[in-house]
Design a protein that fits this description.
alpha/beta, nine-stranded mixed sheet, 27% helix, single chain, seven-stranded parallel sheet, elongated, 11 helices, 18 strands
Amino acid sequence: MRTPLPVGPARAWVDVDLDALVANARTIAARAGRPLLPMVKANGYGLGATAVARALEAVAPWGYGVATLEEGAELRAAGLDRPVIVFTPFAPAVAAADLYRAHRLRPVIGDVAGLEAWRTRTGAGPDAPFHLEIDTGMSRGGVRWNDTAALDALAEALRDAAGWEGVFTHFHSADCDPASAAVQWERFEGVLARLPRRPPLVHAANSAGALLDRGYAGDLVRPGIHLYGGACGGEPAPQPVAALRARVVALRTVQPGETVSYGATWRAEVPTTIATLGIGYADGVPRALSNGGRVEIGGEIVSVAGRVTMDMTMIALASPPAARVAVGDVATLYGGRVSLDEQAARAGTIGYELLTALGPRLPRRYHGGPHGGPHGGTRSTETA
């Protein structure tokens, strides 16, 4: 059966199922038994931060996590009023501090110097809320769990820190090595015992950690990829949220020995119909899918033929294809019979990267969510 042509996008787009997003959030919340702090950084994992956050209001999250000040400011401009934590470590620059204050954003503090700057030199005030990061093995940011001198200095500085709202760590391998999460949690608890008090919010579990063990839930859980339909090593599997689609813009038959695309890396062995899709690596289709990606079209799964180009990707159709595929028909690169994670594996990467690579010229078409109706009443072309 031929996929119906949607109204609107001419060449390629992303269909976003906001109801599936919310269902995935409810799964995490039920498993963890704690409020959510959904990660909506990187433009809501490429799907549109504002639309994603508005849909997630249905699960009454404690707040939202972003990576940059600008991402936090975008949520505020959209009218979202819940707490927002900026997870890039706080850098005590005056201009940055102004933005934190102006948009009511919580910083992540990873050392004594950052804590003192936030409390005394930025104008945020001694009661302005912040979250402390503890490095238990990720080796990316925060106070190292075994740095005794730094922890002692930090404990002293925290004694009168009225704005100290939370403390957290980040699991590095909960999806593939459950034992590592246990080690990190033990280290984290050891640090908590050294601090002058327990703040109101202790959090550690990402999507994988939340599905792995309720004992890691703390006071909040921070789901990310599971919300957006990506596997994270736990059960149940998430519902698909994003479907990347493109139209057939050209058809041709190549004869045995003829080649397709740059570098002539694909050569026909038999007469083959080649369909050209109006989507390429400028839209977020990895060049690594050249000669290896799979695409769903006309009820079949077919292969990418030749190199993915900037604006177009060619696929080799089963023979005879003429009655099943025509110019204007719609192919699904992932989010249908070819899953996000399967396509990512074929590209030698992970679902996170495919989602966050979705290009700015791809419209996001929203289905379900707070606006109701088949498309949620919303269409976005926000950057990814």
